[in-house]
Amino acid sequence: MEKDKETEVIPNTDNTDNTDVRQSLPSALGISWGYVKQQKRGPKGELSIKMIVDAAVAIADKDGLAAVSMNRVAQSLGYSAMSLYRYIESKEDLLLLMQEAVCFYEIPEISEINNWRDDIREYVRVTVAVFCEHPWFGDIPLSGVPMTPNHLRIVDWALRALRDMPLNDFEKMSFVLLVSSYARSVGLIQRDMIRAVQAGSSPEAFSGLSYTAALKQLVSAEQYPYLHPIVASGAYTGENESENTVGNDFDFGLERILDGIQAFLDRKQQ
């Protein structure tokens, strides 16, 4: 699945009067939904919301979220910070638009055969990838449910996998939250591992493999009666991966979540 290289803002195409809708949306949400017209003021009218957001994403990808400021973004574009405020009211709005920009993915075509497990696996894979491709993404605290177009398209995609299930709306959204929470957790762990390796560590050090011998001496059966046999066997640090019958830890966890959903469905249909 190829990610679109351009930031997409989905325009409002509803012919109804949306005055009340526009007034109820915070500034950044209005921009994301296409309710805010492109400003023409400024030098030669060359600056745009898309240019500002793309520049901010590029800075965050390269130097981290802490490097993103209205001044830094403006300088990278050759403008003053005041020029940016004509288009985006605050840094908080900019952060929301950055998140929205990197969440634009081409959703796979719907298949005639609904293999819901495969669909959820792909949904989780794409969600995890966002955290790894844009490490700053997980540094922005959650501030509420998804409200922007691209985020909601991803939620809609997850719900599509559950379309033929005998579930009520609450159950569907609860399952989407469950797999989304797992994807976020996995994404953050994989992101942190990538960061550690880039900083000079190694995958073996991150997993604890480099310290297996020391742990076997430190983790005694008296102090850690249940952890001790796990450390002694090498399973804690992945010492004997060739003997691992489970496979990838993260995939194993996802499969057990999917098994749980299936078990829930089976009970409902009894």
Automatic annotation (TrEMBL):
| Source species, domain of life | Bacteria
- Give residue ranges for domain HTH tetR-type: 46-106
Segments of the chain annotated as binding DNA: 69-88
Q: Where is the composition biased (Polar residues)?
A: 10-21
Give the SUPFAM superfamilies listed for this entry. Homeodomain-like (SSF46689), Tetracyclin repressor-like, C-terminal domain (SSF48498)
Q: Which PANTHER family match?
A: HTH-TYPE TRANSCRIPTIONAL REGULATOR BETI, HTH-TYPE TRANSCRIPTIONAL REGULATOR RUTR
Under what name is this protein listed?
A: TetR family transcriptional regulator
